[in-house]
Amino acid sequence: MALMPISIVLLLSNFLSSTASGQMLQLSIPWVPSLEIEISLVMDGLSMLFALLISGIGALIAIYAGGYLADHPQLNRFNLYLLSFMLAMLGVVLTDNLITLFIFWELTSITSYFLIGFDHEKEEARKAALQALLVTGLGGLAMLAGLLILGEIGGTLEISELVANGVLIRRSPLYVPALLLILAGAFTKSAQFPFHFWLPNAMAAPTPASAYLHAATMVKAGVYLLARMNPILGGTTWWFALLSLFGGTTMLVGALVGIRQTVFKRILAFSTVSGLGTLVMLIGLGTDQAVQAAMLFLVAHALYKGALFLVAGIVDHQTGKKDILQVGGLAGALPMTAMAAGLAALSMGGIPPLFGFIAKEALYESALHMGYFAIPAVVAVVTTGILYLGMGLLVGVGPFLGARPSELGRVREAHWSMWMPPLVLAGTSLLFGVRSGLIEHTLLSPAMKSIVGYRFPTHLGLWHGFSFALVLSLFSMAMGVYVYLRIEDIRRAFRPFDEIVHEFTGANYDRCMTNLMAFARWQTDLLQSGYLKNYLLIIFASTISLTTYTLVSRAGSFSLPFDLPPVLHEVILVAVILAATVSAVFQKSRLGAIATLGIVGYGVALIFATFGAPDLAMTQLLIETLTVILFVLVLYSLPGFTRLSSKGHRFRDAVISIMFGALMTTLVIAALDVQFSPSISAEMARKSYPEAHGRNVVNVILVDFRGIDTMGEITVLSLAALGVFALMKLRPEKEEEV
Amino acid sequence: MLSLLPVLPIVIPLLSGAISLLFWRSLWIQRWIGVGGTGLLLLSTLRLLSEVERTGILSVQIGGWAAPVGITIVADLFSAIMAVLAGIIGFCVAVYSWYGVDERRQSYGYFVFLHVLLMGVCGSFLTGDIFNMYVWFEVMLMASFVLVALGGTPMQMEGAFKYVTLNLVSSALFLAGIGILYGVVGTLNMADLSVKLAQTADPGLVTTLSMFFLIAFGIKAAMFPLFFWLPSSYHTPPPAVSAVFAGLLTKVGVYALIRVFTLIFVQDVVYTHNLILIMSGLTMLCGVLGAAAQFEFRRVLSFHIVSQIGYMTMGLGLNSRLSLTASVFYITHHIIVKTNLFLVSGVIQKMRGTGDLKKLGGLYKTHPSLSVLFLIPAMSLAGLPPLSGFFAKLGLVIAGLRLEQYCIVATALFVSLLTLFSMTKLWAEAFWKPRPDVAEGEDEPRSDDEPMCLTMILPILVLALITLTIGIGAETFFNLADRAAGQLMDPTEYIEAVMRTRS
Amino acid sequence: MNLLLAIVIGALYSAGFYLILRRSIVKLIIGLSFLSHASNLLVFAAGGLTRGRAPLVPPGSLAPVPPYADPLPQALVLTAIVISFGVTAFALALVNRTYQTTGQEDIDELRRTEC
């Protein structure tokens, strides 16, 4: 399982020297050129950094999952999802085409859905999976629109080409809408407040998935996108304001809510939210120092947070406890785990000589240099720094020290496949802390160059001399330990805050869903009421209003057709038909109604006869007679005419029907007045005898010119006969009756 | 033979139906004719498509009477694509019906009606004459009336009753529209109508008339606010019947809308096509919200048909080459996917005896391969990349953005999220959730699960593979759709093909 | 006369639509028949009427002698009449079966497929 990610790591490291020297490797395969979709891979410093994180951590997670889910019947499915996710995530960071990027982006969402819902028989897991999918899906669709607008104003869908058009794009009137839409995607994916709530709930996923997707990689896709877009969209006031505001708020909210949690994975989830906020804020600040801090923090966070998640998973796996209050004194039983946990916790708290310390120093340093915004920025980052140490100690140190609760029973160290990955991650934190030069020039500064567009000097190291940042650092370490010691008070104190945040976010989601469902039911009951007459009324009303409106607003005037003055017997005929029609409506007996129907039918036949259609008249007479006989036969097995509708309904229906009838009359009159071109029937009449050898033009049309109509007509008739037969003979079996 | 190619998709089902009728008493022969006849239909339509693709629009003047005196059967790319889709669906459903439809229904002419239904559908796609289209509509409707009622369960009767009434209203409006149109223009041939209307003096009256066609076809296509017949009837007949209806019938309405509103009624596109656009947006929304309120497998799917129709007509409403391309692509994708989902629902229905989501569950555990077969069309319907539905929606969204129609684009995107929501509901309730009457942790499926049979799974598999192909190989299909849209946008070639023999 | 016929057509449509809006299934089916009469008459009349002369080619002549009635709408109506007869017959059977299987004559009660 781990072989594939490992081989990807090896493959990537081949290109390391090229990306380190600032080269950009490209490979492009057209996929759907009609829509400008290409599978174009691009590898620069930023892609390389992310790709190595994804595949490197992926390898460790794959090893870990093999141990963690060893007895699970669906381990194979889990591995499949995990690998698919990894490939999709690599796709996100390696593609140059906006649409392909979106495709991979959505694939990470859907694999995340399957991973969160992996424990699919539990309702919370299903709900959390859906929530994550909907929130990130909504953002994703907004982002798609944003990316497409960006493509339209930038004239291309390739990111590397858009960079060149950055100025043009930022000046476009569509810049702000595009920016907002793209940010919607990035913020939902990277769990920015107020969309962060799905991430803590996503902890329903098996721990390896949480560690991988919801801490180390997938949630950073939004951050990646922002970093990638910085040269195209960045540098404006909008960019600065939105990113630093949302990022800063998320950073604080995540840390403040996280500190009062007691469930391992929830503490970690909220601190991840906070970490993502930090990254977004740093990219928004956009100074060289901030970008440098962002990259340092990105790596540091992936290392320690991944490790801590895996540790939480081991504790859960070996003791069955998910809450920090239920465990203690585990260092003896889980020595390797404890070592990994301790290192990771210290890195999270920003304690030297771990890599987290370097990241934190950079963070403080960049906040100090923010000019007007320095004071709020410093307050925010120092508060966060304090809480990070507190949370790190809560998860990574507390459970391993002190007395062991008696109900824990015997606890054994986990299989090596489980403790090795966190230890490697935590060890790397230490290694990079001590020897930061290992990644400074190979990975970090090429990545920074991709973000800002130029290379700037970096000086990484544990010791930067005495500076204000160092003072802040020492202060926050002391406060962090204090927070850890007074954690009970803090939990109590922050409780209302936690509730307010929930009310504002997760509870709002629930309300939205409830309201949406209620609205869906309401509108469905309203439209699809089950009452046939409502359906008909809506259809009639639409027809009348659309047609009348069009007629009045668009059609020219027309005159009434007085050209063919009626003779007496025609007037009588018309009067009889009208009388029969009116009486059909008011009939109280079935037979009477059929009689009026018959009268109308014969009347129509007489009209045909009067106006040069003897064949038609004959057919109409015959068919009408048959229809009446059928009606009489069938109606006797049917109930009588019952008046069921209320008076009000009858009036309403009468109004609608009369309007419809009047509309039809008007249209016929209009049609009689307007004749654009001579009818093709003149040509038919000319050809009838000489070419089709028939003297009766109507017959010739039926059997020859339009013979295929007649064939269709016969088919309908035969089908009707068969259908009536089947309907009468084939009765449902008893079991189907219900 | 080649010259008769466009007529074959009408003749083959007619003959298959007639032969099946001769062997009324032998189910065995009828089944084989069902598979063989639809197979031949599929081959003939494929041949037709490749021929049209190679040589341009084909036309046949029936009886040798030159247009507009006689009736012209004409196959442009759009028609040919639709005919191929009818062939694919017909074939897959015929195979599926072998065991998917009970013997009692089969012994009362199920296959005969299926063949004639396909004949009506293909006729509607291929005819070049507006009244002839009415006749094919009636053929198709009559067959569908019988199929929806065949079996006679009370639920079926109630569904059929509404289905028949509302469709007859649609037919009456269609016929009235034709009558007035003939009275005004004096011709029935659609190409001839196009030519003559291009020089009309009073486009306002024609636009008024177009409303009749909009309503009549809108009812068939199940657009807002005319869709009611669909959700009240589609879940009542056997799943195989629902599947063929879901795939083809509403699409005949969409086809007719696209045909007449690109060829004939183009006098006042700002008005008519914007109207179509508004209706499309509401169709999407109402359909998807309807689906959100349902808890029965096929009822959810039925409302989604409505919702998806909105996307297809959206391309028509936007009225650009790209948007029509996307519409044609969308129809192609949708027919395959929707039929497949209904077929899957049929398998589940047969296995568990119910389509009620509250009673279903646990299928992911017991039937992982069926789960995958469900996921492919379901995720494609929701528009997840890189499946076919994604490219269909993408095309529409790009077209909408280019025309600065932001409202409809936002609606389309939002509705696709709700579609995803619905599909995950089906997935979570029928597949993920533990089966309600099986205790958690218990692996044994209950003994009353009927085993799946190959003839029911095979069509599902084939359709799923087609969905994947359309997604991965989107370029090929998009290209074809683009050329079809080109012919629709500029009807000169169509008109020439119809009138060719005149000179 | 054209005007009168236009009014007749409108009246037939009104009656048809009114009857299919009723709750009784029997009235509905009669309403559908009215609708088909209305449509047939409309197709016949929309092109204008000609009194008397049927479109026949008299012996010894090559074409009908004008003025004669337009033969094409007649052919269309013939087709439509036969189709609507088939449809009406089926609809009658359907109504009959619906009544027998559900025992309902009130259409408003036929809502089980949707609730």
Fold topology:
The complex is a heterotrimer of chains A (738), B (503) and C (115).
Chain A: H1 3-14, H2 16-20, E1 25-32, E2 37-43, H3 45-68, H4 75-94, H5 98-116, H6 123-154, H7 159-162, H8 166-171, H9 175-189, H10 198-201, H11 207-216, H12 221-233, H13 237-258, H14 264-285, H15 288-319, H16 335-349, H17 355-368, H18 374-397, H19 416-434, H20 437-452, H21 468-485, H22 487-504, H23 506-527, H24 532-554, H25 568-586, H26 590-610, H27 614-635, H28 647-673, H29 681-692, H30 697-705, H31 707-729
Antiparallel strand pairs in A: 1-2
Chain B: H1 8-22, H2 27-55, E1 58-61, E2 72-75, H3 77-100, H4 103-107, H5 110-126, H6 130-149, H7 154-185, H8 190-198, H9 203-221, H10 229-233, H11 239-263, H12 269-292, H13 297-318, H14 321-352, H15 363-366, H16 368-381, H17 388-402, H18 406-432, H19 454-472, H20 474-489, H21 492-499
Antiparallel strand pairs in B: 1-2
Helix pairs in contact in B: 1-2, 1-5, 2-3, 2-5, 3-5, 3-11, 3-14, 3-19, 5-6, 6-7, 6-11, 7-9, 8-21, 9-11, 11-13, 11-14, 12-13, 12-18, 13-14, 13-17, 13-18, 14-16, 14-17, 14-19, 14-20, 16-18, 16-19, 17-18, 17-19, 19-20
Chain C: H1 2-20, H2 25-45, H3 71-102
Helix pairs in contact in C: 1-2, 2-3
What structural category characterises the helix and strand content of chain A?
Answer: mainly alpha
Largest sheet of chain B: 2 strands, antiparallel
Q: Roughly how many Å apart are the termini of chain A?
A: 52 Å
Instruction: Characterize the biggest β-sheet of chain A.
Output: 2 strands, antiparallel
- pLDDT below 50 for ≥5 consecutive residues: which ranges of chain A? none
Summarize model confidence as the mean pLDDT of chain B: 90
**What percent of residues of chain A are in strands?**
under 5%
Regarding quaternary structure, what we see is heterotrimer
The main sheet of chain B orders its strands as 1-2
Report the strand count of chain A. 2
Strand content of chain B: under 5%
Helix content of chain B: over 70%
CA-CA gap between termini of chain B = 23 Å
What is the CA-based Rg of chain A, rounded?
A: 38 Å
Helical content class of chain A: over 70%
The shape of chain A is elongated
- The number of helical segments of chain B is 21
* CA radius of gyration of chain B: 22 Å
